[in-house]
Every structure is written in structure tokens, then in C-alpha cells.
Amino acid sequence: INAEYGESSSFLQQNPVPEYLKQAQKRLREEMDRCDKYLDESTRFELEQKCVHVLVEKHLELFFAEFVNLLDNDKNEDIGRMYELVVRLPTGLQHLKNLLENHIKSVGLKAVEACGRGKESVDPKEYVKALLEVHKKYNDLVTTSFDKNPIFVQALDKACTAFMNKNCVSESSNNTGKSPELLAKYCNLLLKKSSRISAGEDLESILSNVMVIFKYILEKDVFQRFYRSLLAHRLVNDTSVSHDLEGTMISNLKQE
């Protein structure tokens, strides 16, 4: 075990952390294969714990420092390797979870700032698009690199709730209900006959994406107030693109 630690420390001094992650996975597999072939099954758990202690736990600080760099550079495969190693430690995931949550929140706030920069008013379409892009990116990451682990699903949900409800757009208007207002106005743009949907886009699918954002909205009563008013206007003026879609959207909102 001491030899393993010396080897791992030496490798880390000469190689970047992503290369070490590959090496650590390889050594763990080799040790477990050797155990299965030559040692009694009763020794497997203890041997694995010792290997994890030496190859992973003793280097956690370096892992955590590198994790943010991996997130910044979209190194999803390396993130997955780190998760596969750290998940073997009961206490190892909490810090990764906190780092991921803070990272998603930061990226989300910057995305909102970018779509509102230099504009007197924020375009509802651009605003919702920015929120959806951040959510999709990190939902995909949680699915592929973190195996949908509930801890990281929770990190995604908490980060999205934070930046979707309180950001530079809500603060500049001094209005915590700005996100639900913009979401309702985006729905109105989609459901009006003048809706400009690109060729090949499915309106029903786009509306289902709206529900992704709605799930995170805290002031749902604000959304409902704006939505009801805009719905009434569409119906009175016969500008609704489809009564069936109106019904589907109302049904989706009731389910939430």
C-alpha cells in the first residue's frame, strides 16, 4: 500500500490530474482483478478500501481543485472519471456537489447578464433561451458524468432555482417576479398566430421546455396572473395559434 501511495504521488507530480484519473482507474481494476484471481473473496472489500484510500482519498484536495477547471473547460469524460473514483468514498461527494452547484449558479447568472447587457428591456425569448441552455447543458452532464446521482440532481435543481429567480434582470427591475413575467410573455409569443417558429421546430416540444423553467419558478402566482391575462387577450381577439395547444399548456400547468 505504501508503494502504491509513492507511485501515485510520483505520477501526480509528473502528470496532470486528468491523466492521473485514468491511471487510478486502471490500477484499481488491476488490483481487483488480481484479488478475484488469487485471493479469498472475503479480502476483497478490505483491499478495495485500502486502494481507494491510497489512490483517491489521499489526493482529494488535488481532485477538488482540478474539478472546477474540468467544469470550466467542459471536460465531461474526466469529470465522469473523477466521479467514478470519488463515489467510492462515503464523504467524498458532498464537496463535489457543492462545487458543481456553485459553478452552475455562476454560469447561469453570467448567461442572464449576457442576454440583457446593453438593453433597456429584456427579450422574453432570449431570456428563456438562456435559462434553458444552461439547464440542458448541466442536466446532460448530471445524466452522463454523474449517472443521475440524486446528490447532483439536487445540486442542479438548487442552482437553477437560485439563478432563475434572482439575477441581474430581477435586481435591475427591483422585481423578484420578473422571471415568471418573462416566461408568461414568452408563452404568449409562442401561442399567438404571429408566432415565428423556425422550420422544423415543434411548438408542442418548445412548450414542454417552458415547463422545465416553470418547475424552478418560485413566484408561480405571478406567472399565472400574467398568463391568464395574456390568454384572455388571445381568446378575445382570436389570435391563438391553436385551441388544442392552449388546452395542452393549461393541462401541463395544472400538473405542476
Describe this structure in words.
The protein has 13 helices and no strands. By secondary structure, it is mainly α. It is elongated.
SSE pattern, N- to C-terminal:
HHHHHHHHHHHHH
Average pLDDT number: 89
Distance between termini? 53 Å
| Uncertain stretches of 5 or more adjacent residues | none
The outline comes out as elongated
Largest sheet: none
Q: Helix content range of the residues, please? A: over 70%
Note the quaternary state here.
single chain
Strand content: under 5%
Radius of gyration from the alpha-carbon trace, in angstroms: 24 Å
Number of helices: 13
Secondary structural class: mainly alpha
The total of beta strands comes to 0
Walk me through the topology.
Elements lengths: L1 H13 L2 H22 L5 H12 L4 H13 L3 H11 L6 H24 L7 H21 L5 H16 L2 H5 L5 H14 L11 H14 L3 H17 L6 H13 L1
Helix pairs in contact: 2-3, 2-5, 4-5, 4-6, 6-7, 6-8, 7-8, 7-10, 10-11, 10-12, 11-13
In short:
The protein has 256 residues and is mainly alpha-helical. Helix content is 76%, strand content 0%.
Keywords:
256 residues, mainly alpha, 76% helix
